[in-house]
Amino acid sequence: MELNEIIKFVQLKIENNVYLIVIPIVLLIATVSFIISSFKKPSTTNATATSPTLSSLSNKKNKKKNPSPTLQSTTTTITTNNNNTVKSNQQKQHIDTPIPSPPTTINSISPPNSISISQQQQQQHQHQHQQHQQPTIQEHKLFFKVFRGGDVIDCIKFSEDGKYLSFCGTERSIRMYLFDTLINSKVPQSFNLQLPFDNATCISWGNKTLYATLNESQKLVSYNILDQKSLQTGKSYEEGFSVNLEIKSKIKSICSSSQSPYILTCSGDDTIIKIFNLKGQIIQTINNGQIKNYMASMTQCGRFFAIASFSSEVKIYECIKKKDGTVNECKRVMSLTGYKTSIYSIDFSKDGMKIITSSKDGSIKFWNLNINYKLEVDPECIYSITSEIGVVEIIAISPDCSLFAGVNQTTNTIGFFNISNGNLIDSISLGTNHAKINSIAWSPDSKYLISGGNDKLLYIWSNPKKL
Prior knowledge:
Elements: H1 2-16, H2 19-65, H3 83-96, H4 117-133, E1 143-148, E2 153-158, E3 164-169, E4 173-178, H5 179-184, E5 190-194, E6 200-205, E7 209-214, E8 219-225, E9 237-244, E10 251-255, E11 262-267, E12 272-277, E13 282-287, E14 293-298, E15 304-309, E16 314-321, E17 327-336, E18 343-348, E19 354-359, E20 363-368, E21 380-386, E22 394-397, E23 403-408, E24 413-418, E25 424-429, E26 437-442, E27 448-453, E28 457-462
Antiparallel strand pairs: 1-28, 2-3, 3-4, 4-5, 6-7, 7-8, 8-9, 10-11, 11-12, 12-13, 14-15, 15-16, 16-17, 18-19, 19-20, 20-21, 22-23, 23-24, 24-25, 26-27, 27-28
Helix pairs in contact: 2-3
């Protein structure tokens, strides 16, 4: 009985003092956890801190066995109580370690378009050599002479006897040169037809008479050219008639000749052609209805004239004379067809039996007009070629009808073509940097071609067939 009493007493004491047992156990567990955590932190830190060294050591050892440019995975064994934690730290270290880039030197880096100094000097020398080889304008075999024309040149014309070379443009005068002195003398003789407060857009010659259309006042004026200076005025010319054109657009061409009983003006956007007698009186007004006129051309005898226009058709008109030789009327008698685009320029041969045309598509056609058009026979196309210098905006047949000249105003190229077959004989390329060529004119003896434009210079070129 005494033993049972002792056991009950102990059980009672334990139940009443349970905290005396629990508290030491809790303290023991906390102590053990602190000790374990203190051991885990140094092991993790060492794994992270020393792994690059271990990795580099393992890489150095593996380079001899398998020298690979790729990054090698390393295995670091760390004995801890938690294997999963060690493995995760190894994976994290492997991911965060950057791939080492190969060493580079300054000599190994070069820009893609780098050129050594010696290569630059060599290329510069070659460029200078090429420039030296390229002939200048003055070195071209067809170049004869160049002289300053004053201001921008829009129109160049010769008198029919070849005595005068005249031109006009933005300057408020018409310049007149004695052509013989221009060719043979260092100091050519010239005089100016003064145009107060205006400038001429187009000029044309008659029998010792120069006709001009004025820009601002829109007038048709005439000047009688004297053989000698007037004792009263001291001038080599005297003013003739002056009439209002009453047009709405700029004049593109004026046509006349010593044999023609009329003067023709051709305006651009309003497509109006006006016929005047030699006294400046209006005879007839024609609207050719071709949207836009580019220029007009007349035969030397004045029998025919033609209009180059926006339309793909060239209309040819005939001047019907009265018994006294004056103009009765002008009517359309022929057409040149077969084009697909606009006609830029036209010119008659000296005898009036041939005509040449150039169009926007680069084609050049040569026509025979010696036909019985009254029986509705169409003009005969002798040949059609594609220009070797590109689109020709200005075309002119030489007076001896042996060749024709054409101007490409985009490339500033002058071409000389054989009129018998249209083959290119020679060309002069002034280049796209050169000012635009606005006008050309043949000398009456066909020895020279004169060109002028926005550079304010007049060039004299030799006929390639007369060198």
